[in-house]
Amino acid sequence: MENPPIFVIGCPRSGTTLVSQLLQRTPFRAPVETHFIAKYYKLLDKYGNLRERENCEKLINDILTERAIMQWELNFDFDDFWKNLTSFNYAEIVNKLCMLRFSRIGATSWGDKTPLYILDLDIIYKLFPTSKFIYIVRDGRDVAMSLLNVPWEPNNLYACAECWKKYNKNTPTLDKIRKENKLLQVNYEILLKNPELVINQMFGFIKAEISLEDKQKIIFPIHGSNYNKWKNSMTNTNIKVFEEVAANTLERLGYETSFPEVDRKIRRIFWMMHNRLFHFIHLVKINTVDTLLIKYFGKDSFGE
After folding, report:
1. How far apart are CA 63 and CA 58, in angstroms?
2. Residue 223: is its pLDDT beyond 90?
3. DSSP character for 32?
4. How far is residue 125's CA from residue 100's CA, in Å, rounded to a whole number?
5. Which of 18, 211, 244, 41 is nearest to 128 (CA)?
6. If pLDDT is split at 50, 70 and 90, which confidence band does 156 have?
7. What is the rounded CA–CA span in Å between residue 146 and residue 155?
8. pLDDT (tens digit, 9 = 90+) per residue, 229-242?
9. Given CA atoms 210, 213, 218, 223 in this order, what sign does their dihedral have?
């Protein structure tokens, strides 16, 4: 692959969107959330040999119905797409499909910022082994405060801590990518305090040039005080709930803690049941209530 993609990875609400916006003036433009790559890789056996036109067309038609891809509004011609395939493997199909969207905005490659991919990093790395990865890390307690303001799960501090810890697990694939110098770890707090330093690191990492004028334009909107809000928002009890789940991960990533990590099984069962209940209520809303609003009252089907 001549121009491999770039992947921005990290826990949701950790700054993947901010990093994406900072890359707008690179050959990748601003990475977007594709959501389908790992999902359909796991389903490939269902489609059979992709060298057979019917199988390939079925796969692509299914991908095109994904909500994230529908928003691209591609003018897709399968005959033309089929003629330009060479290896007929899944990575090539993904690459060409994404380039249909990115080439329209002058990009010579493409970028992705789907947070969920950090949990399937082995798949992404297997498909695109020459890619580079920007891994954004943010204090989990601030992430929790942000997660609790969105309608989807997690829905309590304990579940937020579990989620943040899971997304920031130090996996063998992450270590492998790091040792191959294909991973740049970015600290969200340092990005806000010293954006020029981090922007220089990111652009150097992906070997992209940026003028001083353009650098100032992308630095200007960054809000330098949007961190450590948990210190004023969380009670000691809340801090203890979070840190008893994720203190070891906080410390490994360079954050201060006040309480040690403790495994309390009964408490975990209670909080995870609470989380699942509220997630069920959310699913009822988006699958029933929102469907009625879209169908009869004109709600935007792509809105939040």
Report:
1. 9
2. no
3. B
4. 22
5. 41
6. confident
7. 11
8. 999 999 999 999 99
9. positive
Place of tokens 């200007």: 220
Bridge partners (DSSP) listed for residue 183: 133
Task: Tell me: pLDDT of 76 over 60.
Answer: yes
Cα 128 from Cα 259, distance rounded (Å): 40
> What pLDDT is stored for residue 1 in this prediction?
56
CA distance 186 to 113: 14
Written as one letter, the residue type at 20 is S
d(CA 99, CA 226): 34
* 154 φ/ψ sector (left φ>0, alpha ψ -120 to 50, else beta): beta
Torsion angle (degrees, nearest 10) of CA 187, 193, 199, 201: -50
295 burial via Cβ count (<10 Å: 0-12, 13-18, 19+): exposed
Q: Which DSSP letter does residue 104 get?
A: G
Tokens of 68: 């994230």
Q: In whole angstroms, what is the distance from residue 291 CA to residue 286 CA?
A: 7
CA distances from 235 to 165, 231, 238 (A): 20, 8, 5
Please state the rounded mean pLDDT for residues 119-137.
Answer: 97
Coil vs helix vs strand at 117: helix
Q: What is the DSSP letter of 87?
A: S
CB 56 within 8 A of CB 245: no
Res. 181: pLDDT tops 50: yes
Which structure tokens are listed for 272? Answer: 């995870």
Neighbours of 257 (CB within 10 A): 17
